[in-house]
Amino acid sequence: MKNIMIITSYFPPEIGAASNRIFHLAEGLQSDYNVTVVTPLPNYPTGKIFDAYKGKFKVKSQENNINIVRLWLYASKSKNKFVRLFAMLSYSMSLVWFFMWNKIPDKVIVQSPPLLVAFTCMLFLRSKKRKLILNVSDLWPSAGFELGALKQGFSYKLLQKLERFNYKSADLVLGQSNEILTHVGKITSKPELFLYRNYPNINRQNITETSLDNDTLKIVYAGLLGVAQGILKLCKELDYSNIELHIYGSGAEENDIKTFIENNKDLPVHFYGRVDRAELYSELKKYDIVIIPLLNRIYGSVPSKIFEYAKLGLPMLYFGGGEGEDVINENNLGWVAKAGDYSHLNSTIKSIEKEKLNVDLKQKIQQTAYKNFDFNTQLELLKREL
What are the tens digits of pLDDT across the range 322-379? Predict the structure, then answer.
């Protein structure tokens, strides 16, 4: 059987869309390849090496028939850009060391971002005999600029050069949105382009009726509590006259959200922290509608939650703009509010009739998802490209 390597900065037991996406990709490729995943010692989103891996430089294991190599890095979630840079450099240095002492297969999938890690891989693994596949989930540095995390200047221009080098060095680019592929195509015509959505590979869930014991609309958010999601601002801007907000997850804004709730005990905002995926799926059934927000419209971004929640049969309220809006509207998955417009968000919420959030609607959403967002169909198409 042929060998393939996936190099990523995120992998289970870490949480989040990136780690889940790469895990499902690795698992799906097993029927045709011996799969090896190279990843850092788990540390995301806490910024600390998980207890089971502390004090180790390299950990090799086999999980779900996937060969996993976990390498050392300096873990941090510091907001200081130099500390973050050093953290990325540390993983890049570990990768170079790994490349020097290990045989690298003829096919390698590299996750981007982080740009610097992807650049390290594209630079050191270039070979006429090797096919480099760049899996682009977000457009950096432009996404960082739109989020306010980066400013234009010398460092921004340097990141743009790294970005262009990565695209031009790839033989195949996988983009999770059409906007990403359009962007890459404007920079270089060298790589083949393939739309590879973040479809989850999950077992079909039974649809249950939401409690209609009162007229209050129970809204739930589940996921990372980072800058991009803007959950703290959401808490501050919502009109709570006829809604409840329930929050699951962890991340950079977690403590600020807890403080907000503590200081506003009169508001129906509830925080439950991080729960494992199986428990989360069970919990989500309690609520009327899930909200998928982005602080700003990010070109190229289509949150993977859209596809995951659709397969669970959950009606969605999307508040992020861009291509995600098209996916929601074209597949009748829920409601869309204008990105960044909290007044429109509140008026959209008021327009939602709770009695219409019934089993029939949920079953229609789930049927659409399993028809249009099929993981295995997409995977088979990808295998032909590889």
Answer: 999 999 999 999 999 999 999 999 999 999 998 888 999 999 999 999 999 999 999 9
Distances from the Cα of 159 to the Cαs of 140, 151, 178, 230, 377, in angstroms?
8, 11, 22, 25, 35
Structure tokens given for 34: 């011996």
**Residue with tokens 């592929």, as numbered in its chain:** 181
Whole-number Å distance between alpha carbons of 109 and 121: 10
Closest CA to 349 of 306, 290, 300, 294: 290
The answer to whether the CB of 297 falls within 8 A of the CB of 337 is no
CB–CB of 176/196 below 8 Å? yes
SS3 270: strand
| CB-based contact 378:197 (threshold 8 Å) | yes
User: How far is the C-alpha of 375 from the C-alpha of 28, rounded, in Å?
Assistant: 9
* Beta strand extents in the chain (DSSP E only): 2-7, 33-40, 58-63, 66-71, 107-112, 131-136, 172-175, 192-195, 217-222, 243-248, 269-271, 289-293, 316-319, 334-336
Joined tokens for residue 234: 């959401």
Q: What is the DSSP string of 299-350?
A: TT---THHHHHHHTT--EEEES-THHHHHHHHTT-EEE--TT-HHHHHHHHH
Percentages of the chain per state (helix, strand, coil), in multiples of 5: 40, 20, 40
Average pLDDT over residues 235-250: 95
Q: Are the C-beta atoms of 148 and 142 separated by less than 8 Å?
A: no
Residue 32, CA distances (Å) to 103, 135, 182 in order? 19, 19, 30
Amino acid making up residue 372: N
With tokens 């403590």, the residue in question is 255
CB of 43 within 8 A of CB of 50?
yes
Nearest 5°: CA angle at 58, between 57 and 61? 150
DSSP character for 98?
Answer: H
Residue among 163, 168, 319 nearest 238 (CA): 319
**Token code pair at residue 10:** 């995120």
Beta bridge partners of 104: none
